[in-house]
Amino acid sequence: MEGDEPLLNIESLTVGYLTEEGILKAVKDVDLYVKSSEGVCVVGESGSGKTTLANAILGILPPNAIVLGGSIVFGGIDLLRADHRLRASILGIKISLVPQNPSSSLNPILRIEDQFCEILKHRRGVRDKRQCREIVEDLLRKTGIRDPDRVMRQYPHQLSGGMKQRVLIAMALSTSPKLIVADEPTSMLDATLQAQILDVLSDIKREGLSILMITHDLGVAERICERIYIMYYGEIMEFGSVEKILNKPLHPYTMLLLEHAFLGFKSGGRKETGYGDMKDLRIYKNQNGCIFSSRCPYAFSRCFAEKPKILGNSSSGVKCFLY
Amino acid sequence: MKKTKIGSYKIFFPRLQRIYRFIIEDRFLLAFLILLVSMIVMSVFADLIAPNDPYRINLAEKLNPPSADHIMGTDQLGRDLFSRIIYGGRYTLMLSAASIALALLIGLVVGTVSGYYRGLLDLVVQRIIDILMAFPTIVLAIALATFIGSKPETLVVAVGIAESPFMVRVIRSAVLGISEMPYIEAVKLMGYSDLYVIVRHVIPNIVYVVIPQATLQMGSAILTIAALGFLGIGIKPPTPEWGSMLNEARTYLMDYPHLLVFPGLMIFLAVVSFNVIGESLRIKLDPKARVTYSIVGIRVGSIFREPGGDRYGRR
Amino acid sequence: MGSLTTYIIKRFLAAIPTIIGAATLIFFLVRVLPGDPVHILAGEQTTPEIVERLRSEFGLDKPIYIQYLIYLKSIFTLDFGTSYRTYTPVISEILSRFPNTVILALSAMAISISLGVVLGIIMALRAGTILDKALLIFTSIYVSIPVFWLGLILIYVFAVQLKLLPAGGIGSPAHIVLPSIALSHTPLSYIARITRTSMLEIMSQDHVRMAIARGMPTRVIIFNHVLRNSLMNVITVIGYFVGVLLGGAVVTETVFAYPGIGRLLIESIAARDYIMVQGIVIFITIIFILVNLVVDIAYRIIDPRVRL
């Protein structure tokens, strides 16, 4: 049935990086899907592999990354195995990126309108300058910019962080995508701006777009998403609907995250648990057993010996021997 | 660079082992290091190696091409070129080394004090350096050499001063960077005198910048000294020096090109060695240098095409 | 545009003390030589009249601070005195030769820039491959070749053996070819290197990553995003070298017997015409400072981040 078929379906995806110590896997056997008009969040700390996951979907993995297995199916097409032309027609047009750092993601020597028109020209075939400006004005308004004429003519450094992020969102919308991958779009902004940007994103979602949001902040996840995937060191630990995860977390790691999020909320800032760093991937390279076992307060002997499998169904699941 | 193991024998001292991995396993670096060392050895032991007296004139044998008697031939006064090259190395290499040593001394003293204490002193020093850098290096060297004199000692001073601004700048900037670090503050707070802090803490930390810089500037100094010799402002004939030998070769260029090959080649080899070694050292010693290379690292084929095409978005 | 004009004025004003400082250095340098400065400036074969004229012209019998003031005044009026050798004003000798040096410097830069940037782009796009490594080695080697040796080899190959190009002097475009090639070798290597480094740095930046994620065609990314951003850095280097070449073409001009100010400098030194030497050195320095100044300002104009 039309509504059931996911827009994006990732199965058994494994991505590693080639380093001097061999291949380090950043994403291990991940299953994930996004439906139309749905907001899905991938929550994890740095080193959890969430950015690698996003990069793999968008096709911007660094040259030392290797996809070791799995599939990324979008609109029926496996992005990992499709030929160049097919991929080019999807990536950048039907799937767009909203990046983390608004200041560095815009070309500093071009005006905003020129950057837009370049995208429109090469990806939508719009060559007429005037037509381009109209479209840009429209897009900028959609993201809440009240004086698009002025903003268009400026250079990136003349705009504030929040403005730049809106511009980036507008650029992401310019190709009428079906899915927006947002990689921690608010982590560089302060709290008020964060709320504004999240509002913009919610509005967009209402119009039919799907959003795959990468974040480490459960508060952000709660605002935008319907479903959450919790990632730890490249593996999905638990996933399910927002209500379920936040109110009845099953996995010990999820509980830990919630604790810290709550603490953070109390003290006014986001707190990380302090786990997670790319370098630590090496420690876990050859580990048997559950990857969270060394830090799990509920771990027992089986946790160190075997790797748990995901228990659950397509809408929610958990990877833990406690169940 | 690929590390190839030359021999797998046990090394007992960890320090030695690090030096081994650092230098000897990099074959490229090793080759140039050997080249350089041989040139230095050649200059130092010139008396033992040179077959003939470099000053001995023998007009009967003038302008001979390379032969069994004279490996590199003879020059316009019948002097053995090979011997002259060997002795010439003394002047070219040693004068350059001395001038860089001087530049290093100036750089360390001025740069460290200026970067550490900052303030008015630093501003004055910066202005002076700006003034010195207002001259193209060779022009400054020429001007200094002209007016101070062209004896070996004064040449060293001239080139040393001409090369010192770069050294001062580099050292000063490194010292500025180190001085900002919290742990220098900590040591100072512990009550140690400034001199102690500078010598025991600041300077060891700037070594990784100073050594490559000095090496690279050696190349530049050699070119300058040789250029001065070539122009007739530096070491003058009959003293053998690679630059002035090239000048002498000019007149006979048309018919006796062999005169020009060897002196130039020696200068070239010396400079190349210092440049390559200096570059190598700079990359290896800089803790941050690796970063740029990681984005354009290894391309690995896999059974799954990278979703993004190659790194430049080509699809 | 107000801030830009202010900047220009500020930089000009800042350059003046540097010029004065450099001139002062020369002033004291000339007086380092033992002996009566008059005799040094007057040269060897001189007559008592000349000595007296010089003495009064430069106020060399007056106390040193007055000499210094006279000297400074003469610099700013560009009156560098009269050459001992040719009896013509130093400044007119310099100005008659300077255009030649300019032509040489500009053609050398043209070669360096065109080849250097192209090489740099190739190296950046093929970074890490054998081609890149080979070119890196090549630039290291090429920059290590002494200019005078390269020049002599070029003369031997092209002028003596192949009899293709003239060995020296001036008169036709052909006369500029070999000296330009010789002179360009250092800037070329540096420009290639800096283009490469600059491009690599830009390529790892987020906005390039974004362009790739948007699926922009490679050519567009390279030209509009990477190159345009890198060229800013390259311009600084280019400017620096123009300055260096204008003054530092000394050796090349000597090798090719090219009548520019570099060769004039060497001739004057050989002839002990120290007034001329003093004048040339000051002139070269002023040009160098001015060129760097212009480059600095140009850079500010081009970079919108600074301009607005």
Mean pLDDT of chain C: 81
Shape of chain C: flat
Q: What gross morphology of chain B would you assign?
A: elongated
What is the residue-mean pLDDT of chain B, rounded to a whole number? 77
The count of DSSP E runs of length 2 or more, i.e. the number of strands of chain B, is 0
| CATH-defined superfamily of chain C | MetI-like
> How would you classify the quaternary structure?
heterotrimer
Number of helices, counting only DSSP H or I runs of 4 residues or more of chain C: 14
Q: What is the chain-wise order of helices and strands of chain C?
A: HHHHHHHHHHHHHH
Please outline the major beta sheet of chain B.
Answer: none
The span between the termini of chain B is: 29 Å
> How much helix, percentage-wise, in residues of chain C?
over 70%
The first-level CATH class of chain C is given as Mainly Alpha
Number of domains of chain C: 1
The tally of strands of chain C reads: 0
How much of the residues of chain B is beta strand, in percent? under 5%
Q: Do you know the CATH topology of chain C? A: MetI-like fold
Radius of gyration of chain B: 24 Å
CATH architecture of chain C: Orthogonal Bundle
Folded structure, characterized:
- The complex is a heterotrimer of chains A (323), B (315) and C (308).
- In chain A, 34% of the residues lie in helices and 23% in strands.
- Chain A contains eleven helices and twelve strands.
- An eight-stranded mixed sheet of chain A has the order 6-7-8-3-9-10-12-11, sandwiched between helices. Chain A has a four-stranded antiparallel sheet with strand order 2-1-4-5.
- In chain A, strand 9 and strand 10 form a beta hairpin.
- Chain A starts with 7 loop residues before the first strand and ends in a 5-residue tail after the last strand.
- Mean pLDDT of chain A is 83; it is low at 265-278.
- Chain B is mainly α and 315 residues long.
- In chain B, 68% of the residues lie in helices and 0% in strands.
- The longest helix of chain B has 38 residues, at 194-231.
- Mean pLDDT of chain B is 77; it is low at 1-11 and 289-315.
- Chain C is mainly α.
- Chain C has one domain (1-308): Orthogonal Bundle (MetI-like fold).
- Chain C has 14 helices and no strands.
- Chain C has helices spanning 2-30, 37-42, 48-57, 64-76, 90-125, 130-144, 147-161, 173-203, 206-213, 218-248, 250-255, 261-270, 274-302, 304-307.
- The model of chain C has no long low-confidence stretch (mean pLDDT 81).
